[in-house]
Every structure is written in structure tokens, then in C-alpha cells.
Amino acid sequence: MINWRIYFLLGLFTSVSSSGVWSQKVELNKSKYGLSSITLYPKGAPTSPPFIPLSGGVLTFMFDDLSASYSTYNLRIVHCTHDWWYSDLHPSEYIDGFHNVVIDEMEDSFGTKVNYTHYSIDLPREDLIITRSGNYVLEVFDPYEPNEIVISRRFVVYEDLCFVEAKVNEPVDVALRRTHQDVSFIVKEDSYAFLDPYSSLTATVLQNGRWDNALSGIPPRFIKGHEIDFSKVGYTFPGGNSYRFVDLKSLSYTARGIAGIMEGEDYFHHLLEPSKRRTYTYHKSQPDINGAFIIANDRYEPHTGSDYTMTHFSLPMPYELHDRNIFIFGELSNGRCLPTYQMHWNSAKSSYEAKLLLKQGYYNFFYLVKDSSAPEFEVGITADIEGDHFATDNLYTVILYYSDFEGYDRVVGFAQWNNNPR
Do 318 and 221 share a structural domain? Predict the structure, then answer.
């Protein structure tokens, strides 16, 4: 006799597992070796962080496979909580169409020393429409090994259900006024009423689209009628400095900051001019793209005609930092301080050095410092190499989450601005 209870429980277990009801931390900003130049941005705005409105927003996702083997990759969209755990929603509750799709736009590189296959896709599309706001993770995987994620990138879909008025002030702490920036904002109810905002409303503040040093979970300071005040509640960031840049668009002439270009047997080499430590220098504002990068070259179609070049970084120092590591940081490092991007001390030259295989384009980066024993998730320090300044122009983002009565963290408000626009 068939035990229908067992069959029912097995079916329930499968449904629960596939919908992510059992809380599980999301793998964030992951990329498999050999998959490179990964970008996710609002369509037509390659230097902007991946935040789009629920109505009418479109993201462009691109990457290269350096094996150049025409592999098949699938993509799925996963809804998350405000603190980046898989949410309890089933895919059918936030996707109209297919939960995962094949990335079918692929093209081989042409005329390059390093061969690769370029993949691209725009989302949402007709067979995959996002129906709810919130935090999301885009996961790329081999269709034959769906549990092995080869790329993960997070993005945010928001609704304008309230008005967010935000600004940057000098910190209350006098000791931080020259080096840090304090973000304060007021939320005004518009077309959406907040019930018990002290426990249901959560704000996250980002600097230059970075999640590694995001500040979140701080409750409102007070509520006055239809205004919810988040001023002087602790959203304070090191000001940092203008991002450094490297211009790799040409393989034939040296742009600003390039000491020389050489053609090797396997790839080109760009030798960068030595970087200068900016710890104690007077702040001088320079144009930057907030840590992002743009793929481009001076002759061919950018995405399949740009070559990969070995880029050599050097940071002269009078001495090696004891028990401390220096990392090259930016969107080029997936917004993380990873071993691949760590610099190494060359005692003969009294300099920190590193080399990265980068696709032709224009890149922003920082040198961040961490204790050698620090875990990967610990935030790198800008003060030691780059310096911190209140006057630095940074891109700030406020994301407002509300625990909706339908059982998910809804993004009900959004604001983004440059504090010192040039």
C-alpha cells in the first residue's frame, strides 16, 4: 500500500527547498576563475550601480569566458531579504515567466591575442518579468550543475512609494569632521502608509555603490506626523579620496598614467606609472566614476574587439607595512579585497607590486589596507594609503525597506545623489 503521507512530505520538502523558504545566506559577488569583465548596470548607464525601478527598469548583464569554448550558461533571479538571505517567496510570487533562462547572446572575440567568448543579456525581458521590488541576486550556473554557482551579482528593484530627502553633513563628532561624512535623511509618506515604522522600516546607506561598508539596521530617530526622521543616527562614512584611474583603451599609445606598453607572446602588457601615497596630501578633487569601470578601446567594437592586457601596478613605499596587506579595490575586484588583488612587497625596488589581466577600458580603483589576520568580510581602510577627506565627492544611495504585510521586504523608497557634484 502506498504511503501517501510520505509522498506528500517529499513533495513539500522539494517545494520548500526550491523556493528558498529555509533561511540561507546568499553567495554574493562570486565569480569563477576564467570568467572575467563581469558587469551589471542599468541599461545605457555603465558606470551606475545596478538599482532599477520596478516599472520600466532594465539591467544589462555581461561577462567574458576566457576559455572561448561556447559553454552554455543559465541565469536565475532570486529574491532576498533586506539583509541578503534568501527570502520566503516562491519564484512564481516575484517572477512572471521562467525562473531561469539561457544566456543565448554570445559572440567570439575578433582580432585579439586573448581569445574569449562574450555573453550578454538584458533583464527583465518578455519571458522573465520581475513583479515585486526588493533585493535580488542574479546567479549564473551550468545547466548540468544547477547548484554550482559560477557568477553571482546583487541588484535592487525599487518603488517610489515615499519621498526620501537626503543630504551629507559634517559628523557630530568633532574628531571626524575633517575626514568623515555623515548621511541624514527624512522619509515622507506619500502613497503608502507605514504601520509601526520603528520595527518595520529599515534603511540601508551605500557609498559609491559599495556593499562591503554599507550601513544598515539603524532605526528612525523620531516620527512626526507623516515625516520619519533619520538624522544624526549614525550613518557616518570615511570620506576617502578621489578614485585613482588606469586608462587601457589603447594598445599603441600611452595614455595619462601609462609608463609603457609592450606586446608579449600571450598578451600585451601595460606598465603603469608608480602610484603615490596620498595619506597626508592636501585633498584635490579629481573626476572619477565612483570605483566603476567601462570596457572600451580606441579602434574596434568594445565588447568583442577589446583585448586583455597584463596590467602592472606599483606603489613605492619607504618600508614594508608590518602585518598588514594592501589590496587593489574597486568594481574590478568585484567590490571585495580578494587574494588575487593583493599587492606583494618587492624589497629590491622598495615597492608594493601586483599585476592583473584586465580587458581594455577605463578603470577606477583604490589601495585599501587590512590587517593580515583580518577576515575577508572586514572592510579595508582608505586612510593609510589614500587618505580620508570630508570634501571628497562620493555617490550616496539610500534604500528604504519595509516589512510588507504580504511577507517580504519591499523597497518602498530610494534616493541617490553626489554630495559634492563637480
Answer: no
For the chain, how are helix, strand and coil distributed in percent, rounded to 5?
A: 10, 45, 45
C-alpha span between 392 and 179 (Å, rounded): 9
- The pLDDT confidence band at residue 190, using thresholds 50, 70 and 90, is confident
Reported confidence tier of residue 422, pLDDT bands at 50, 70, 90: low
Same structural domain, 186 and 154: no
Considering the domain architecture, whether residues 35 and 153 belong to the same structural domain is answered as: yes
User: Does 206 lie in the same domain as 154?
Assistant: no
Whether 387 maps to a domain, the answer reads: no
Tell me: the pLDDT tens digits for 298-325?
Answer: 989 999 999 999 999 999 999 999 999 9
248, 361 contact by CB (below 8 A): yes
Q: What CA–CA distance (Å, rounded) separates 365 from 180? A: 20
Rounded alpha-carbon distances, angstroms, from residue 417 to 81, 93, 166: 24, 32, 8
Q: Domain with 112 in it: what CATH number?
A: 2.60.40.10
Count of structural domains within the chain: 3
Residue at grid coordinates 585579439: 112
Residue 10 lies in a domain: no
What domain range is 152 assigned to? 25-158
Do 328 and 343 contact (CB within 8 A), yes or no?
yes
Within-domain flag for 386: no
Give me the count of residues in the chain: 422
Show which of 137, 158, 179 is a domain's final residue: 158
Report CA torsion sign: 71, 339, 362, 360.
negative
Could you tell me if 92 and 30 are in contact, meaning their C-beta atoms sit under 8 angstroms apart? Answer: no
Q: What is the mean pLDDT of the chain?
A: 91
Average pLDDT score over residue span 87-110: 95
Residues 6 or more apart from 146 whose CB is under 8 A from it?
74
Helical H runs in 88-231?
A: 91-94, 197-200
> CA separation (Å) from 123 to 129, 402, 408?
8, 24, 22
φ, ψ dihedrals at 296, nearest 5°: -165, 160
CA angle 359, 364, 369 (to 5 degrees): 110
What are 54-94's pLDDT values in tens digits?
Answer: 999 999 999 999 997 889 999 999 999 999 999 999 999 99
- In the numeric block, which cell numbers belong to residue 125? 525581458
Of the listed ranges 220-234, 259-273, 364-378, 399-413, the one predicted with least confidence = 220-234
